[in-house]
Amino acid sequence: MTLDARSVTLHLGLLAVLVVLGFVLPTYHQGNLARILVLATYTIGYNVLFGYTGLLSLGHAMFFAAGMYGCGLVMHLGGWPVLPALLMGLVCAAALSAVVALLALRTIGVAFMIVTLMFAQAVYLTVLYLGAWTGGDEGFVIAQASRQIAGFALTDPLTRYFAALMIFAVALLITARMMQMPFGRVLIGVRENEERTQMLGYDVFRHKLLAVIISGTIAGGAGAAYAILFGYVGATFASVQYSIFPLLWVLLGGMGTTIGPLIGVAFMFYLIDYASGLTNAYMLIAGAVLVLLTLFARAGIVGEIRNRWVPWLP
Amino acid sequence: MSLLETKGLTRNYGGLRAVDGVDYTLSKGEIHALIGPNGAGKSTFVGMVSGRIPTSAGEVWFEGENITALPAHARIKKGMAYTFQITAVYARLSLFDNVALALGRRERPHVLAALDRVGLADRADQNAGDLAYGHQRLLEIAMGVAQAPRLLILDEPTQGLAESEIAGFNDLIRSLKGDTTILLIEHNMQVVMALADEITVLETGKILARGTPEEIHANAAVQNAYLGTG
Q1: Interface probe with A: pick from B73, B76, B82, B89, most Cβ of A within 10 Å
Q2: What is the set of domains in chain B, with CATH numbers?
């Protein structure tokens, strides 16, 4: 098999397993996995920028929130149906990421981290400031009746699971394909050696700009999906915590791997789920496991598997 | 007709004038060597030609067009290629990926053909960082050649190459002659004498002499500044 065929088999195989899981899992885990898939979509977006392009953003919650509020507000206040609202979420996230990119990409390294952090903080405070519409800290609930597409109620656990899987699959396949194409390889070139990439005739700024927009738009799509599927929109999702999460998940799963985001989110989710069943001090257990992972699997779970056993993992 | 021309090209680093008002022309199809002692401004000069280093004053013209204001990547797109003095291959990517990025395409036969020009085709799937230094230099050269440039700028390409590899390098450069104009910074005088149609000697940021290899070899000022008494 060529590299391409192996990668196609891996991704389609993973999706097939997820389809089967949708039917066999008990409702509790089905709900968990739906949430994991949406958060993994967010993390896939983050991975495009951090894992593949080498730009560390500390403000991705603003893109997640742009999608979430862009979609949620038009449903909640405007009574829009699901699909146009989802599109609105994507447009908001794309627009915000384009503006932020044009400003933040004037900086590099630590300055880029700080600028993205500050922009995200500004978005978070804006959400609170506009409390009359956004509900501030408490957020708002999207009416159950409006959360349906052509008669399929997204409040039904199985339907919701497959809607989440569909969003995840689109993000996974788009990014996996993108990273095989010349455009994606140039992003990796930017990560590995920016000056070299420029001296091969590539417009590094334009590539970084597109990477931020693609990354931010996928993150926004995940935010919009979260609002639609779980019916809640709140300022927590715009907070700094939600900017740190995708960084953590990508590092855990394996930066610059296509399936790392899903593995990272699922691992963290079930680690906390399991540890909280054992003790109230579950964050202590989670912390210890994270320390062990960073000591012994620095490339993350999938990254370590790639380094040790399966070098072709995309 | 000249492919490349610089007018009063100047670069200051603080109080130091690394390149000082250089007027230079390079004819199409020529192999031109730029020599001079360390710190003469050779790398700074080609850095300004390729757009890597901003100019303090002066102009760069390429194929009759003033490209002084163009960023580096736009100059590369116009047909320049630049190989780094300090090897700058993508160490964590395969040789295949390195050359594919230089080519701008990923069809395996094309990439392997480009690697084959420096004899590295059988190592296509290795990581560039795992190569011996000499092979990394060859990969760097392969990436420059793969871009099929009209002007290929080579900054000390043979540094760290073994004798046998230098012979292969000389053959490769000769095979490019005609389609590709080559601007070569080189310390190895045997390579310069074997390849160059013409030589320019830089010293303290200025052109000290210019001529055929024979003329340069016989030039007393160059002897003093650079070549020694040998």
Answers
A1: B73
A2: 29-51+71-227 (3.40.50.300)
